[in-house]
Amino acid sequence: MLQKLQRCCSNRVLSGKCPFVKKLYLLLFFIACWCSASAHKRITTGDITFKNAWVDPDPAPFADFKTLVVPIKRAGNLIIIEATVDSLEGNFVLDTGAPYLVLNETYFRDAPKIDDQEAGGINGKADGAFSTVVHNFRILDLQYSRLTADVTDLSAIENGRGIKVLGLLGTRLFSKFAITVDLFRSVLYIQKLDRNGEIPETERIFHDRFMVSPFRYTNDVIFMKGSVNNTTLWFAFDTGAETNLLEYKMAKKIGEDMPVISRSKLTGVGGSTFEVIYARFDHLRVGDRMFMQNRVLITDLDKMGRVYGSSIDGVLGYDFFVRGIFTINFVKKEFEMYIYTNQ
Description:
This protein is globular. The longest helix is centred in the N-terminal third of the chain and has 9 residues, at 21-29. The chain has a domain at 211-338: Beta Barrel (Cathepsin D, subunit A, domain 1). With 343 residues, it is mostly beta strands. The chain has helices spanning 21-29, 105-108, 155-161, 248-254, 302-308, 318-321; strands spanning 2-7, 12-15, 32-37, 40-45, 48-54, 62-63, 67-71, 73-75, 78-85, 88-94, 101-104, 115-121, 124-139, 142-152, 167-169, 178-182, 187-191, 211-218, 221-228, 231-237, 244-247, 260-267, 273-281, 284-286, 289-291, 294-299, 314-316, 325-329, 334-338. The strands form four sheets. It has a 16-stranded mixed sheet that branches.
């Protein structure tokens, strides 16, 4: 079975006129659900449908480099990278909360349709999503001759950030590499690894790491183990999340004094409402490092756990990874962070 991840967004804000509502609106857009589809699919081009068409696994990318240096742009707290899909060049969000390539239906609604998908998240369902295959996807010298992708509505990002977005770059695109994000210098490094899964010493750019943590890589999602007040927590690491998230029940369990910054109520596509609390807390340990003065949105993450196929206690987003330069080694399944002065 091929597991598909799709995106959704909330329709409107009910109350809570706080400065974080716009950030929250975009954050919820990145909360997704899993949809399963058989490897034997219907392929539709125009009015012609081919039933039970076999979809081959995507081939390995062509990478004629040791270290690829990719410029980064910023749209709010989102990391933007320029890439080319077929003949169309434009902006993509680096999103480790997505498992693979996701395309904006505004520009790809006429792409060959492999299968319909159901998109949804913690705040409802969205119709019209489908899967497709693209050719000649390229990030500078990193080239993919063929990629399976999902097509869905990404207009919430464009409207919220005032930028044209062609799609999302998920983790599977980088599963054979290590990637390093330096927000201070606006650079993404994509690096080949040696036979031991290490960045070759001659290619290392940063040294004297600030912290290191192993991670689980399940369903193309990065899960990092942390703790607060000696209570173990499992976080999804998501570069598409504009702030951190914490499950309601865990916020009560850890017993940490959390000064509330703001409260807000939102309504989803189905009309149900839910409350989110923006708060501060200390004593977050991830890997071998303690982090203080953390900011987090507290809300119900049960549906998000079903999204990832595993219960989660929270999400580590921008408020976490902005603290330093970070490296994700997908082969060793290791996360590293460096302070900005170490180079």
